[in-house]
């Protein structure tokens, strides 16, 4: 467990994990919305 | 253009923030350029509707005059009647905005974010009454009210905390961390709002089965809507906090894993925190203090329960005067009072012992109770 923790604290591992997280989110956005500059619905709490 | 609701908004925001980031790395801040960013974002938010723009400008003038008149008055006098009158006058635009739809009249007074600006102004007036805020310049008030990242739906910052951030220019290392956290928050917002909330709404809530209003569909809707509401609002909050961080302002958090709450008190320390803390400090605490001072009711628990009732009733009514919002507020008041009573009695009876098992059970029970509250809130029941 300690070894895994130490591994994930390595700067290049942190950087790779973070970049993969960002890329996955961008990929998710691309899959749902494509390249269209879509105007999504407003936020629920904008009404209040 | 509603802030954070479209990708084009993010592109404009990204371009506008480039000089802010460059200056941040140089340990500098340009008030002139930051003001330009705020003006552009405010114009994007209000310029498409001239009624909103006019209402917004008139509202800002109104609140600046009120706060500065009260600051001037407070230097010499401290009459309770004048304080209540000024608070009421600060609330008038919001009250009119909430009442016009009830009277089936067009909302010509309201604009995006009016509630949050009102919370900020009332907070300043109360702090002046308490002596916690002595002086404020027009520039300081405008910078606080018109801080564009949080203009549409909060989080509701506190004037003194905000002022401290404005007076402190982060070091290069501090700004690097703020920028990193800000970008993280914005990506979290994309994940919450544009992916998870979108999928829940599109693939569950909007399906014909869920829209059919059968007992089973309502049961599933209760959980789907609760998650949708969280990811929608937590997504917005992440965008607002992220943009604030990039501008060097540590806007307070709005959410902290609310569905893992162990009880109702814990829930209100994790859900829409900036609003619940505002109501706690400026409604509940003041009411309890006032009642204790007047000694009209001797039992402090009764005073506290009336305070909870007042807090949640007002919070419900703030959402709207529709029956489901009032019921939502009263439901949470009843839960909070019941939980407080149970917690007190449990200290004597010891029927609910603290261990890992009861903690997990508490989280599960609280989650379902909260979701039922959101079902009321959604307006699907009545």
UniProtKB/TrEMBL annotation, chain A:
The chain crosses the membrane at residues 12-35. The keyword Transmembrane helix applies. It comes from the Bacteria. InterPro entries: DltX. Keywords: Membrane, Transmembrane, Transmembrane helix. It holds the Pfam family DltX. This is D-Ala-teichoic acid biosynthesis protein.
UniProtKB/TrEMBL annotation, chain B:
It is found in: Cell membrane. Its EC number is 2.3.1.-. The keyword Transmembrane applies. It is a multi-pass membrane protein. Keywords: Acyltransferase, Cell membrane, Membrane, Transferase, Transmembrane, Transmembrane helix. GO terms for cellular component: plasma membrane. Pfam families: MBOAT. Pathway: Cell wall biogenesis; lipoteichoic acid biosynthesis. The chain crosses the membrane at residues 6-24, 31-47, 53-73, 80-96, 102-119, 182-200, 220-246, 301-319, 325-342, 363-381. One of its GO terms (molecular function) is acyltransferase activity. InterPro entries: Ac/AlaTfrase_AlgI/DltB, DltB, MB_O-acyltransferase, MBOAT_fam. GO terms for biological process: lipoteichoic acid biosynthetic process. O-acyltransferase that catalyzes D-alanylation of both teichoic acid and lipoteichoic acid (LTA). D-alanylation of LTA plays an important role in modulating the properties of the cell wall in Gram-positive bacteria, influencing the net charge of the cell wall. Catalyzes D-alanylation from DltC carrier protein. Belongs to the membrane-bound acyltransferase family. NCBIfam families: LTA_dltB. This is Teichoic acid D-alanyltransferase.
């Amino acid at each position: 467990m300690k070894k895994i923790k130490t591994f994930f604290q390595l700067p290049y591992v942190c950087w790779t994990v973070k970049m993969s997280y960002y890329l996955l989110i961008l990929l998710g956005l691309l899959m749902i919305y494509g390249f269209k500059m879509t105007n999504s619905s407003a936020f629920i709490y904008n009404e209040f | 253009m509603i802030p954070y609701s479209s990708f084009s908004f993010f592109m404009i925001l990204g371009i506008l923030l480039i000089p802010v980031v460059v200056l941040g790395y140089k340990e500098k801040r340009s008030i002139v350029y930051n003001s330009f960013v705020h003006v552009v974002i405010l114009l994007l938010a209000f310029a498409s509707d001239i009624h909103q723009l006019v209402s917004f400008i008139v509202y800002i003038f109104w609140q600046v005059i009120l706060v500065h008149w009260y600051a001037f008055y407070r230097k010499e006098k401290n009459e309770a009647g004048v304080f209540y009158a000024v608070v009421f006058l600060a609330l008038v635009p919001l009250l009119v905005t909430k009442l016009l739809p009830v009277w089936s009249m067009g909302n010509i007074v309201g604009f995006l974010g009016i509630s949050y600006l009102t919370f900020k102004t009332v907070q300043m007036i109360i702090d002046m009454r308490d002596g916690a805020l002595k002086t404020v310049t027009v520039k300081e008030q405008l910078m606080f009210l018109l801080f564009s990242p949080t203009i549409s739906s909060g989080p509701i910052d506190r004037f003194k905390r905000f002022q401290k951030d404005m007076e402190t220019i982060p070091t290069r290392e501090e700004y690097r961390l703020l920028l990193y956290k800000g970008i993280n928050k914005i990506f979290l917002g994309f994940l919450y709002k544009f992916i998870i909330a979108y999928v829940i709404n599109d693939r569950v809530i909007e399906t014909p089965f869920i829209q059919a209003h059968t007992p089973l569909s309502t049961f599933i809707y209760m959980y789907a809507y609760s998650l949708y509401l969280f990811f929608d609002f937590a997504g917005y909050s992440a965008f607002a906090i992220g943009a604030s961080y990039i501008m060097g302002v540590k806007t307070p958090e709005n959410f902290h894993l609310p569905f893992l709450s162990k009880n109702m008190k814990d829930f209100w320390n994790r859900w829409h925190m900036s609003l619940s803390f505002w109501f706690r400090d400026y409604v509940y605490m003041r009411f309890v203090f006032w009642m204790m001072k007047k000694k009209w009711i001797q039992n402090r628990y009764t005073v506290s329960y009336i305070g909870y009732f007042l807090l949640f009733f007002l919070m419900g009514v703030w959402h709207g005067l529709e029956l489901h919002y009032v019921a939502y507020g009263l439901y949470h008041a009843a839960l909070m009072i019941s939980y407080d009573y149970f917690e007190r009695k449990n200290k004597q009876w010891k029927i609910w012992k603290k261990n890992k098992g009861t903690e997990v059970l508490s989280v599960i029970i609280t989650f379902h109770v909260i979701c039922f509250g959101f079902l009321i809130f959604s307006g699907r029941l009545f």
